[in-house]
Amino acid sequence: MHETMIAQSLLAAISEEAKKQNARPISAKISCGTLNAVNDEILCFAFEAAAKGTPCEGIKLQIEHKALQAQCKNCKQNFDIKLSNPKCPVCNDDDFELLPDAPLLLEEIEFSTVLGTPDGGHPTVETD
Amino acid sequence: MQTKKSIGKKILSANEECAIKNSRILSERKKLCLNMISSPGSGKTTILHRTISELKGKIRIGVIEGDIQTDLDAEKIRKTGAPAIQINTNGACHLSAAQVSRALKQLPLDDLDLIFIENVGNLVCPSAFELGETGKVAVLSVAEGDDKPAKYPAIFARAKALLINKIDMLQTGGRVDFDIERVKRDVCKLNKTIEIFPISAKTGEGMRNWYDWLLKSTKDILS
User: Fold this and answer.
1) Does residue A108 come out as left (phi exceeding 0), alpha (psi in the -120 to 50 range) or beta?
2) Partner of B161 for a Cys bridge, out of B68, B195, B214, B217, CB 3.0 to 4.6 A?
3) Domain for residue B4, yes or no?
4) Chain A CB contacts of B131 below 8 Å
């Protein structure tokens, strides 16, 4: 349920960038680590609710989950760790060090650009 | 036409910046600050109540209480004579660094050695939000089941200490199946440096080891 606060922070970040670019955002790509425990469905729902009535309403969110990594102390290999069965997939050793989890990042925003038509007519805004 | 713009901004940067400020205030003043995280009903408030009462004269403790509603917990803590600030999150499932920052300003920091933050009862959300604390302490009560570290690993992977509470329920004739060794195994796989204290805040069993760890940790901060 902490997705609500994440959604509000995300909305603030996208709105700020949209203002800077003076363009309408249509989608955003974010990434998160395993320990952020982000549930996609809840985050999208919370974002939709937070964005209602703002220029960010209707934005599509793309969420990439980055695996938590560990380094095996035996064979020094970095590997994606399965928290339910944590051990090195190469040498099966369970002595490892957890590496820092990926942060919650706003990676990319896709904007719809306002275009002037070639014959100098009214500009059109592309909708999704 | 559509254009893509690469951003690379931390979504929770506002919370993180505030957490760094809190951390700076605490470390400059050499205060130990522990963020207690658990499910509701694991016994965090009872643990704090007993800890404050029994360490009176040894460590000066203040508490920041996080709950969705009411100031029942802060009232309980104040009965020990310790200062307690209640934060009501009004629905939010975790504390934020800004809320803790405001609470820190209300506590008499100069008269304290240790500040406990009792987070909102929730085993998942609070561990995603740094508050500026020195460390996190997870609490798991035996009635919740010994599979919780395997099912909810995030907090157990990050905590400096784990209190396994209500071990008095495991005595002969008890109705709770809980394998402490399984919990230790599961937690230590993810977190090699965690300190694990099986306790009963009700009977006092095992609390001595927890107190010794607190005494040592407050001393370490000062040196």
Assistant:
1) beta
2) B195
3) no
4) none
